[in-house]
Design a protein that fits this description.
There is one protein chain. A five-stranded mixed β-sheet has the order 2-1-5-3-4, with helices on one face. The longest helix has 14 residues. The chain is of the alpha+beta class and 262 residues long. It has two domains: 106 residues, Roll (Ubiquitin-like (UB roll)), CATH 3.10.20.30; 116 residues, Orthogonal Bundle (Fumarate Reductase Iron-sulfur Protein, Chain B, domain 2).
Length: 262
């Protein structure tokens, strides 16, 4: 869908303006399937402190201006991954991005730079910034993201050396926010591609010395919609809010397939 022009005017005078606050123009790509045929931009002039997070701006708009604004959030501390969205065109977590990091130089009229917020791409928009995550989690479940062990249940814990744990440490950091997957051009063009996050979570178990399901996962990812669809653009690595080397993990899975060695 193509977004239409912004013709909105909102009264934001009810939003509390703490001492030291500045006015931020927040443009949000809105879409209500019950009312709209196409997404459209709406603007809000919101008072904010430089140390406020983008999530604070959204809360102020929802609480004081328009309660119909829809977005996901949960922990608000960069752990749950619920509030991934496009902020100034880049996939980020709204709870981690500070207003001061988005402020640019004022234009000739003295107006502050506009902060744009839109839903992540590649997943169906259900309402406003709220997207359908089911295709994302379907791919995640398909790679069997859990420990697979055969034989009798052990009588003691499965011991692992620090070196073996270090082998897959990076990919344990994934919080399933979908920022990496929804930044991938291949995923935008073909939603059947497993996507970076699913491959990262497969990597986490493929290289776990306690796991016995590596071959099963490698067979799954050897599919036409698996790791070979990756074009190594590094979009996913740049988008990851946890700093995971996503592209590196995908390349390691490719090498495991090529050389049949984990």
């Amino acid at each position: 869908m193509t977004a239409v022009a912004d013709n909105s005017v909102h009264d934001t005078s009810q939003i509390p303006a703490p001492e030291g606050s500045i006015t931020i123009t927040v443009r949000i790509l809105r879409f209500n399937p019950e009312l709209d045929t196409e997404p459209h931009w709406e603007s809000y002039d919101v008072p904010a402190l430089p140390t406020d997070r983008v999530l604070n701006l959204l809360f102020n708009i929802k609480n004081y201006v328009d309660g119909t604004l829809a977005f996901r959030r949960s922990c608000a501390h960069g752990i749950c991954g619920s509030d991934a969205m496009q902020i100034n065109g880049i996939n980020r977590l709204a709870c981690k991005v500070l207003v001061k990091d988005l402020l640019g130089k004022k234009d000739s009229a003295g107006k502050p730079a506009v902060v744009t917020i839109a839903p992540i791409k590649g997943l169906p928009t259900m309402k406003d910034l709220y997207v359908d995550m089911e295709p994302f989690f379907e791919a995640y479940r398909a790679v069997k993201p859990y420990l697979i062990a055969y034989g009798n249940e052990p009588t003691r814990e499965r011991v692992q050396s620090p070196a073996d744990r270090e082998r897959f440490d990076d990919t344990t950091k994934c919080i399933l926010c979908a920022a990496c997957t929804s930044s991938c051009p291949v995923y935008w063009a073909d939603g059947s591609y497993f996507g970076p996050a699913a491959i990262v979570n497969a990597h986490r178990f493929i290289f776990d010395s306690r796991d016995e399901g590596a071959e099963e996962r490698l067979d799954i990812l050897n599919d036409a919609e698996g790791v070979w669809r990756c074009r190594t653009t590094f979009n996913c690595t740049d988008a990851c809010p946890r700093g995971i080397q996503v592209t590196k993990a995908i390349q390691e899975v490719k090498r495991a397939l090529l050389f049949k060695r984990v």
